[in-house]
Amino acid sequence: MELRQLRYFATLAETLHFGRAAAAQHIAPSAFSAQIARLEREVGCRLVERTSRQVRLTAAGLAFAEHAHLTLDSAEQAVRAARDASQALSGQLTLGLLDGGAAAELTVPIVQAFKTTYPAVAVRLRALTYDTHLLALLDGDVDAVLGPSFTDGDDRYLTTPLFIDPRMALLPATHALADSPTVTVTDLLEEVFVHGEGLPVAMDRHFALADAREGSLPRGPVARSMSEVLHLVAGSEAVTTVTAATARYSPFPGVAYRPLVGAPSTTTSLLTRAHRRGQRRSPLLEGLTLTAIHVTSDLMHLVAGAEPPTTSQPASR
Question: How many whole angstroms separate alpha carbon 116 and alpha carbon 4?
Answer without folding.
Answer: 20
